[in-house]
Amino acid sequence: PLNLQQRGYRAAVCHKIKAPMEVGDLPSVEKIPKGMVKVAVHSTGINFADILMVAGAYQERPELPFVPGFEMAGEVMAVGEGVTAFKEGHRVVGLLQPPGSYAEECLANEKMLFHLPDSVTYTTAAAVPVSYGTALLGLTRRANLQHGETVLVTAAAGALGTAVVDLAAHALGATVIGGAGSQEKCEFVSSRGAQHTIDYSQDSIKDRVKVITQGRGCDVAFDGVGGKVFEDCLKCLAWEGRMLVAGFAGGDIPKIAANLLLVKNISAAGLYWGKYAMQNIGVLRQTVEDTLTLMEEGKIKGPPQPTTFKLEQVNEAFKFIMDRKSTGKVVLEIR
User: Fold this and answer.
1) What is the pLDDT of residue 61?
2) InterPro entries annotated for this entry (predicted)?
């Protein structure tokens, strides 16, 4: 249980499921466990998984009370026994398991930390690991996207969507069709590298893909929305197309009619990037390292400037995302 009396550092704490978080003081950890790194958090990215977790709707439920947040960027304060890759003062970006990055300090496993290039700000870095790691793993390992193929991306103006657009268009040489829920968001998606867009508040996904691809369909559909949007994407796929299931932000988990897979030799693949932390951490690390390298070399745009909120505004930040006002990533500025 969290000790909320002793002063140490500020954190946003979830005391009760489906209730607003409270910012309070937590005691600073003085003895760093073996293999762990204590980080002064400068910025932390907000992911949809965080919102689901606080609502009690995520597949993993931490014991109450808990501090949310899976990804952060900051500066190393101290290291535990056995840590060799990092030392005090190093700029880092990393992942937390269990969560805890909505705070001025956090403990991260050495294996889940990455050196942050000087050219990348903490704010930008906090928008990288989950979104870009998920996007790169999905496009390469799960969908085997090839140069010259066409990829359809739903929720393309969101944090994950903008990463998919960026990597597919600029690093992997694909033709990108970005779907979003307004004309304004479609213009943003075009600015991120998509050659075509679909405003699915106005137009049929299936009809627009048919026109854009001259009846052929798309090779890969990358969907994190679910529901009818997923069903429409499935019908848009070309022969030997690949359907990526990255989440259900719309709240509706669809069922797949297996005959649709059969008649066009379609593959459907799940995409749970964070699980690689337990199953194959080398794969997870490679996606983040490759992304940081691509950013440093100027081969991808990197995340658009995130929308930022202060730690005390964490509940407003969640509402901002839930009201679908965000484009790209939303980041909490801690320091």
Assistant:
1) 86
2) ADH-like_C, ADH-like_N, ER, GroES-like_sf, NAD(P)-bd_dom_sf, Zn-ADH-like_protein
The answer to whether residue 298 is domain-embedded is no
State the CATH number of the domain containing residue 112. Answer: 3.90.180.10
Q: Quick one: pLDDT at residue 251?
A: 81
Question: What per-residue confidence (pLDDT) applies to 293?
Answer: 95
Q: Which domain holds residue 196?
A: 130-273
The DSSP code sequence of 87-154 is: -TT-EEEEE-SS---SBSEEEEEGGGEEEPPTTS-HHHHTTSHHHHHHHHHIIIIIT---TT-EEEES
Q: What's the pTM? A: 0.92
Mean pLDDT for the chain overall = 94
Place of tokens 């140069």: 147
Q: How buried is 222 (Cβ within 10 angstroms: 0-12 exposed, 13-18 middle, 19+ buried)?
A: buried
159 and 203 in a single domain? The answer is yes
Residue 219 · residue 242 · CB < 8 Å: yes
**Structure tokens belonging to residue 83:** 């840590």
Rounded distance, CA 295 to CA 288, Å? 11
Count the alpha carbons within 13 Å of 225 in the hemisphere toward its beta carbon.
24
